[in-house]
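SEVERITY: medium
COMPONENT: batch folding queue
REPORTER: lab tech (J.R.)

DESCRIPTION
The queue accepted two submissions in a row. Attaching both inputs and their returned structure tokens so the on-call engineer can compare them side by side.

ATTACHMENT 1
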Amino acid sequence: MNLTLAAISYGITVFALILLTVRVRTLLAIYKKGAADPTRRNDKGTRLRMALREIFGHTKMFNFTVVGFAHWFVMIGFFSLFGTLITAYGQLIDPYFALPVIGHFWVYEYFTELIAWATGIGIVTLIGIRQVTRLRNKRSRFYGSGMAKAYYVEFTILLIVFCVIALRGLEGALSDETAWNRHFVTTWFIADMFKSWTLAQLTSTIQLVAAIKIVGSMAWFIVIASNLTMGVAWHRFLAPFNIFYRRNADGKSSLGPLPEMLSHGEVVNFEDPKDDDVFGLGTRADITWKGLLDMTSCTECGRCQSQCPAWHTDKPLSPKLLIMAMRDHAFAKTVETEAMVGENAAITSDILWSCTSCGACVNECPVDIEHIDHIVNMRRYQVMVESDFPAELGGTFRNLEQSGNPWGANKNDREAWIAECDFPIKVVEGVLPDEVEYLFWVGCAGAYDERARKTTKAVAELLYMAGVEFAVLGKKETCTGDPARRAGNEFLYQIMAAENIETFKEVFAERPKGKKKVVVTCPHCFTTIGRDYAQSGFELEMVHHTQLLNQLIREKKLLPVKMSHTAMTYHDPCYLGRHNEIYQPPREILEATGAQLTEMPRNKERSFCCGAGGGRMWMEEKIGTRINLNRVDEAIGTGAQELAVACPFCRVMTTDGMSSRESSMEVLDVAQVLLRSVKG
């Protein structure tokens, strides 16, 4: 036994494990100091099954196929090769040492070799992808990541793989085997190279490589224990817990509705708030334990950054850099009351208000970090506590309060579009008549914006032609509160939501569940009424107009007769697609009309935002290039003649973009395309 190597290896192991234990306790203490969030502890069995499925299925990682396979083997190798570390400790004392029972079982030996080679190939692949991506684009997904930390982790993995393979070859040379056999399936060529060595050379080399393996592994533990913000290493331990405690136990995306605002672990009662209630996220002390877990789980992989519309148009917001900044602030030696947002704070106002809440970051994150929730919580604090928000939003909030719509238009004009229709439209006076199947929620844009009104009239006419009984609320409609909520004015949202819920209760009266059907043209209204309002205990059966129209085509109640064969491309609205996972109905409608559909490179769950979400519809875009121009350039690049949309916000933004680009490409709602085909 080499006493020096043994002393170094066992000594560093003791030191590393003690330090790691102390630092893990420190990390847990930090989590415990986080604000309460009791919504994460329900359905533990469901959560466990979901987490196992997502972790071992690598569901999000496989969105990047090559990266997904490479990372899967690296992940499996991290755990599967643990037995080789135990073996290394034994080899320091006895070079012939093998694990009891399974150590010389050829299946275990073959599995170890296979995983080691796969892990090595996987990490080399990931290193190559990092370098190519970084060098090809200076603002790539790796921009701003701790590259030195990543290189260290990658070097450690390569070192361990080298040691495992080398030890297997040396073990073969030390064995009595004289030819290739099942005990050394992939490493016999190495063993054969060392067969000429003396016994002393082999045993001393085995002890040396075993020591290198142990020291390399323990040094890694010491490094990460000394740096609790080293997410590229810590995510191996923390990501499974972050996935387990994600917002939805069933594994559904952490998008759609915003979480209710919590204070001290309870939902804030805006009708009678407590004196010590906390409104949003303003300081480190306001971050929940789950928020802290989010931040320390961040691998700095930048997949969120690679899909962010703000980042791609030279805004200061990167979801990755935001989480990293929040993490560094939360773990820094600062006072608990130090502001999270501000001129000299971790997050600047320009960063905070650049977000469109499109959900691309949340959709891409492989460890289920909930970026939008943190951003909106910070906005809530800025709006309701600091009264510090973009000046344009002040006018929007006043318009919502006084006129019930973000434009400040006259309430009496909500029915103006009806006079432009040459067919009858029922306006609900009290309770919805029994013969009426659908309440048509027109929405603010659908009632006031000239372009969106074309969609409203097209949908109404199609429903009339299909014989669907529907009615509208007319002047009784008011904004759902979506702009207020996504912009952080939770108090105003609660007022508007309560008002609308009372209206719905009056309109639907005693109708049973399943008979309270609402059709909308706006995905933002669709999300707010259908999902956010459910938090107040009120649920309706929401249908987006593309879903209903597609159903009517299938039922032969609408028959496209004029096949246009027009070259067309379709833009997926963020709140219809990523937030609600509705992708096919609009496409099926367009295909039914004979349109020649060409997809943009960024489509479906990877669709690029129009720039209007998260309250951005009512804010000037002063930094970088315009998001809508980025999107229309992509649409124009397809060579299509028309751009189909399924959201009034998207229609406004893309139409403006086409005008700025002086493009002849026409922007139409899917309903208009269908109406044109049905009327012939």
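ATTACHMENT 2
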Amino acid sequence: MRVLAVVPARGGSAGVPLKNLAPVGGIPLVTRAVRASLRSELIDRVVVSTDHAGIAEAAKEAGALVVDRPEELSGATASSESAVLHALDALDEDPEVVVLVQCTSAFIDSADLSAAVRKVLDGEADTVVSGLPTHEFLWTAAGGGINHDPAVRQRRQDREPQFRENGAFYVMRTSGLREHGHRFFGTVAVQPVPARHAIEIDDPEDLELARALAPFVDVPEPIDVDAVITDFDGVHTDDRAYVDSDGREMVLVSRSDGMGIALLRRSGVKVLVMSTEHNPVVAARARKLGVPVLQGIAEKRVVLRDWLTIEGLDPARVAYVGNDVNDLGPMAEVGWPIAVPDAHPRVRAAARVVLSKMGGDGAVRELCDRVVAARPETPAPEVKRRPRFGPVAVGEVLVGDGEPVYVIGEIGINHNGDLDLARRLIDVAADAGCQAVKFQKRTPAICVPEAQKGQIRQTPWGEMTYLEYKERTEFGHDEYRQIAKYCDERGLHWFASPWDVPSIEFLEEMDVVAHKVASASVADHELLRALAATGKPLMLSTGMSTLSEIDQAVEILGTEKLIMMHATSTYPLPPEEANLRTITTLKERYGVPVGYSGHERGLQISLAAVTLGAVCVERHITLDRTMWGSDHAASLEPAGLEHLVRDIRIIEQAMGDGVKRVFPGEEAPKARLRRVTV
């Protein structure tokens, strides 16, 4: 053995009680010292010298050997050198180099440690001390200059840096230490360390400063857990509430959190939101994320224990993210207590990990990424033996089983060629809570049959040919650019059903998030091949199609980014033709997410489709069903669309996960009403 690191870590401390076990960034100081030493490529073995059982246990868990430090070497007056020499004797080792590593430095860089060891091994120095480069002017209490002449005030760039010993580590030739009995002998060199690593913890203020710096200094490591539980206010939000003139409360969240949660759930990690308040904002956000939520909880710790028991989870492999003192209880129950950086000081002190992102500004996404990074990659199956069932990413939203239902407001041609009417319909969809709106895009000269082009039609704009009418109601580049901008402002995806290849090229120029295949286009293989070539997510409507025709379409489109839409192309749709069990048939046959595109009057059939597993619902929308145009009569008006989305979200929440359990709301009635007899 050439290099031995010794970490003196006694139990007593004048400034901070049991300082060496104090956590910084959720990790005890003694553990941090051991890990930094083990990461150094030149250190062969790490030993912790201690008189405290708790420190010894933490050292062993971190991978160090432990030497019991005798009482006479454990007092406040005992030198660190005496601990190092005792450790050498106790181990009966005579390494070429010994390194004294101090727990009081929380941010030791193993690269700096290795560089210092190399200087001694290469004969450049007999002792190397860590030091912070400084150009500070030092004064005596009497006003005398120590390292400068007050009469000659040099500029910073004119002075060589001096080094302030920061106490992180001392590298010594072992023979010299034994000969001299102290750490400074022979040729002494300095190993510069950056300011962010140079803080030394002597008192509570230093400890609090180190804890505040940890999220910015520590290199984020993967978090290996099976479940993530989060508080809501201050974690998913910035802990502020916005109230409009009608008294409705809104909160600020990060869109990136949604994708993070989706990735987490796809990797098999369970997710739960807990909140002491009972607030519709919490429920709405949880529905959007597709995760269960427990609200109005007085005793988070008790409810958390019950949930872990019900789910059969090992608390040591569970993360809880909090920001305030009411989170301390549940944080103490899990192996990974986590805090946001602006959390209450007691919460940061109790955390194993302090995130770098604030609540509402990506804290949840940061956590999700670190959890997913620890999950083993699932190997691709050699043979696909059962359906995939998705999900498919449409923009930043996942559409598939287990995800929130993706609701599409089908504007189609109900805008009647009027851009202002299109904007009003976009508002209807956004206000109702839809995730997307869909249009139809045609090149009339291609799509209108020759026999119909010259037919005369009576229209709101007067008498014109059918071709002129179709051209009159089509939007071009300028209109769709305005539509795209307005949808983005309202937080909606937009896309369209292209009816011909030039329309696909047009929509690709608009960079739509997906394409819809209309039922009329299922057998248009030229169109399908062009759509498959885009690489975009595709939604295939199956109205007026046989399974054989759908088989051929799927062969062309593939299944990787395919969402199938059960539909019956009768306008309006009578209940006896809805045939909703086809949703299950399509899922089992093609192994892709299946939604529902409805043309019925009312809401019942669409809601039933959700209970049967439809992952998205598309309905035509209009301002008034009596408006001029072929699709208005089978469309939903604003109130109907709002009720549809509301009821879909209620159904999602009511469906649950199928696990029989006693919910928190049942506890009081159970205690009051349940009789137990034997």
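NOTES FROM REPORTER
The longest strand covers residues 162-173.
No errors were logged for either attachment.
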